[in-house]
Amino acid sequence: MQEKSTWKFREGDEIVPGRHATRLLGGGRRYEAYLAWDDELHTLVVVKIVRPALVESEGARRGIEGEARALEALSHPTIVRMFDAVLDGNRPHVLLEHLEGPRLSTLLRRYRVILEQLLPLGIELCSALHYMHGRGYLHLDVKPRNVVMSARPRLIDLSVAMPLEDVRGITRPIGTDAYMAPEQCDPERFSEIGPPSDVWGLGVTLYEALTRVRPFPAADASTGSSGAARYPQLDADPFPLPSDFPRPLTEAIFSCLERRPADRPTAVELANAFEPWVASLPGPRLGLFRPGGKAQRSDFASRDESILSPASHRSHRRRLLLSGMRDSRTQQGGKR
Fold first, then answer.
1. Helix (H) or strand (E) holding 36
2. Which residues pair with 96 in a beta bridge?
3. CA–CA separation, 189 vs 44, rounded Å?
4. How confident is the model at residue 40 (pLDDT cuts 50, 70, 90)?
5. Are 129 and 198 contacting, i.e. CB atoms less than 8 angstroms apart?
6. Which of 35, 161, 194, 254 is the most buried (most CB within 10 A)?
């Protein structure tokens, strides 16, 4: 495999005037990300920049421009913020907020998410997806690597995000193989890509968060593989979750993995399935990852949605709303 080109910025190197590299955070096929210091904002930021060998690539340019447009159009407490975009010149990049906290994928290498953590996480991600869909955008790459577990979880990396009107003509696979809905794997065989595609990615993410394994068999990694060999989710059924998981939550996650998009819940419907359980939790638990942590499943399994009163539901909704309003007020000073 050809080695990816890199800018090789070292601590103190100027990326562009007023922005200095601190360290390399990582990167993908087309882009790399640096923790940097921005003189104007006077704070640490993330610079996501096109790799040097791809600066003249139309596809890489189009990707960073599309991400900039999406982030400019979106403002939500659970979606990473963009402060600036430099799309001309020989160092095209976007300037993103620096989020304190590991990616969910990093945590899952050692721990799994217990139910008390999964439920609030699921609602936060449902909230972000509902907002994106309402604004006419699809993320198309929901996966643990694109969730940062900061004080409030954040959905990141909108490099393949698209307006709904732009996905109508897609005929090639789009996304990350293991997290792609069937219609993303084979748009010609299945129905159009749409909001249910993001719900599928969320379902795979929540399944993996609970079990530390993915819900479908491993793909054939051989070069040139295609169809069900490359995308087992096209034909295979998901592995069952442990029988002692609460049945309503198991059903909610599996509903996201229905092969027909029309059979999957919307992001709001999924959040509504989680909310009665979250309302009964003692308090936020997202930061408490425990090695081999085990939820008190007997407690969860004994709870019935019917015993939660409408007043409890309304109170919980108010808490979520007020929390979001507080976060939004603290973000209004950000430059977009």
1. strand 31-38
2. 46, 82
3. 45
4. very high
5. yes
6. 161
**Residue with tokens 């490099």, as numbered in its chain:** 159
> Do 133 and 198 touch, CB atoms closer than 8 A?
yes
Contact predicate 270/248, CB 8 Å: no
Phi, psi dihedrals of residue 273, rounded to the nearest 5°: -70, -30
HSE-up (13 A, CA, CB side) for residue 206: 31
Going by C-alpha positions, the residue among 243, 249, 261, 272 that lies closest to residue 200 is 261
Residue 153 tokens, joined: 């979880």
Please give the angle made by the CA atoms of 109, 114 and 115, to the nearest 5 degrees.
140
The set of residues, in sequence order, having a beta carbon less than 8 Å from that of 218 and lying 6+ positions away, is 232
At 192-207, the pLDDT tens digits run 899 999 999 999 999 9
- The pLDDT score that the predictor gives to residue 221 is 67
Mean pLDDT of the chain: 85
SS3 35: strand
Q: Quick one: tokens of 24?
A: 């390399």
Of residues 271, 255, 288, the one with CA closest to residue 116? 288
Q: What residues form DSSP beta bridges with 82? A: 96
Which two three-digit tokens encode residue 144?
């643990």
Q: Which residues of 170-186 are buried (b: 16+ CB within 10 A; e: fewer)?
A: beebbbbebbbbbbbbb
**DSSP letters for 75-129:** --TTB--EEEEE-SSSS-EEEEE---S-BHHHHTTT----HHHHHHHHHHHHHHH
Q: Tens digit of pLDDT for each residue in 134-189?
A: 999 999 999 999 999 998 999 999 999 999 999 988 889 999 999 999 999 999 88
pTM of the complete model: 0.82
Kindly give the pairing relationship between strand 14-16 and strand 31-38: unpaired
Tell me the pLDDT tens digit for each residue of 75-105. Answer: 999 999 999 999 999 999 999 999 999 999 9
